[in-house]
Amino acid sequence: MLDAAGPEAQADAAAIIQAFLGLWPGASLAGLDEAGMKRLTWHLNGLLTVADWVGSNAAWFPASPPVSDLSAYLDVARARAATALQTAGLAAPSVATGALFDFAPRPMQAACAGVPLPHGPMLALIEDETGSGKTEAALILARRMLAAGKGRGLYVALPTMATADAMFRRLRAVLPRLFAGAPSVTLAHGRAGLSEDYRDLALAHERDQDEPGPTEWLRDSRRRALLANVGVGTVDQALLAAVRAKHAALRQYALSRNILIVDEVHEMGDPYMGVLLRQLLRIHAALGGSAILMSATLPQGLRADLMAAFEIGAGRAAPGDPGPAYPALTVPGVAAPAVAAAPSPRGPVGVQRLADPGAALDLLEQAARQGAACVWVRNAVDTAIDAVQALRDRGVAADLFHARFALADRKRHETAVLARFGKHRAARPGRVLVATQVVESSLDLDFDVMVSDLAPMAALSPPAGRLWRHMDRRPAEARLLSAPVLHVLSPDPGADAGPDWAAAELAQGVHVYPRDSLWRTARALFATGEIRAPEGLRALIEAAHADDPLPLALEAAALRTQGAAAAQRAHGAQNAVGWD
């Protein structure tokens, strides 16, 4: 580059370096080791990108003639910079004090309010059952971390646009208690402009700059979304900081300013995404960032990998295994308080196997005619369409919800689903919702009767959390059944398993998940006979992820799964940014 620029440019660069040394005489690279120098190159690249975008805005920094007194110009530029950063939405307001929520804290929330905060970059893992208030616990901890200077803002990363939109609605109501002033806020995913909540917030901020919302500068480019004081979006927006993509250093810098909160982290355990998430945590810690990870069904092996990646990035040794306790708050480097396993008000959820789709249809028809709110969670969209048609042919009121609808239709269906099966639903709707896994984590629903296709334990647990969910509104005596039961459409794992095991029961849905994972889940689930949350979830999760022998007929499928996983890990490593 120096050769191409020529000797005149080299002389100008040398003159600028001398001038800068005069402005900052204390600047020195002495004592900076090679690892620190490499980290600084990434951090400096991101910082300069942001500074260039702000500084090249002629409305904030109008062109001026050459100056001889650089020190005087610096004073003028600093005053303009303060105004520019405020207008751009990059200046963070102070952290609010007082109670963040009005309700009495649950055990995990109390633990997050009292856990010691370690020095330096901090990682916290929150593991608790669906519906236990993990999001509120994370926000309680995040505000404490903000007050301790571990970040200037938040970025909440979720697996899908639907979950991001739902989180944006929840977080919007808490903003006045998180910050003393009005933070800049963005929704970071490809269809953010179609979110009514986001548009309303943007319009409110345009009318009144003292209201939280996205600034015009932040909305001008999706690459700037991560620079907001509060960002909610899909996890892929954060993972772009860990791949060989344009502006990766900018995204790294933006995230390092904020506390990274990753929800539903168990859904990011596929081999490709797992490589990128570990790399992101390592980079985030190396740049001084802190993170909170949340999950209801996080396998211990994945938990150990994520903790090791973060701690190594922070320059610390990989931590030991925190043990099998569940629910659990884990903060490497400190003794986190134990979290009491508060029994669920609904009690244990029974598990019953349904041998064929006809049995599922009979059960749902009978329950719906009695007035129950029913759901059938199917693995594939095609099988969901077939099921809803079969129910309608029987004269049952049935709704369909999956991720392949056009967005406008999906929003309409989502509104109807929330009205018919949500927290404020009627006591006796007498309807059936047939849905794919989109129902797992994006909607606050409450069902009386649940049927699910066989799926890995990590995919079965979240929808099971929507069975008899709001016991304060609909106690046990108001339900049609005597106890909650999860009916699982599955073959018998104790019978002889052939190469087409589960194909007759699940049809196309058998190809969604690895066959060996389905078999292990069925074996663990039906042997236990119930889901006792939260204290029994860990054993079920680990049993479903065990590496013990499989039936001979399933070994070939397991080997294909291992080969595909190895290929995905290699692809992830190839695409990961060359941090070292």
Characterize this entry briefly.
This protein has 580 residues and is of the alpha/beta class. The protein has helices at residues 2-5, 7-23, 34-55, 70-88, 107-114, 134-147, 161-178, 196-207, 216-219, 235-239, 248-256, 271-286, 300-313, 357-369, 381-393, 407-421, 457-464, 503-506, 515-528, 537-544, 552-575; strands at residues 123-127, 153-158, 185-188, 230-234, 258-262, 291-295, 328-330, 349-354, 373-377, 398-401, 431-435, 449-453, 485-489, 530-531. The strands form 2 sheets. A 7-stranded mixed beta sheet has the order 3-4-2-5-6-1-7, sandwiched between helices. The protein has a 7-stranded mixed beta sheet with strand order 10-11-9-12-13-8-14, with helices on both faces.
Structural class assignment = alpha/beta
List segments where confidence is low: pLDDT < 50 over at least 5 consecutive residues: none
Largest sheet: 7 strands, mixed
Strand order of the largest sheet: 3-4-2-5-6-1-7
Shape: globular
Alpha plus pi helix count: 21
Residue fraction in strands: 5-15%
Q: Mean of the pLDDT scores?
A: 89
Total number of beta strands: 14
Radius of gyration: 26 Å
Description:
The longest helix is centred in the last third of the chain and has 24 residues. This protein has 580 residues and is an alpha/beta fold. The protein has a seven-stranded mixed sheet, with helices on both faces. Strands 10-11-9-12-13-8-14 form a seven-stranded mixed sheet, with helices on both faces. α5 packs parallel to α6, α12 runs parallel beside α13 and α12 packs parallel to α21. The protein is globular, with a radius of gyration of 26 Å. The two termini are 22 Å apart.
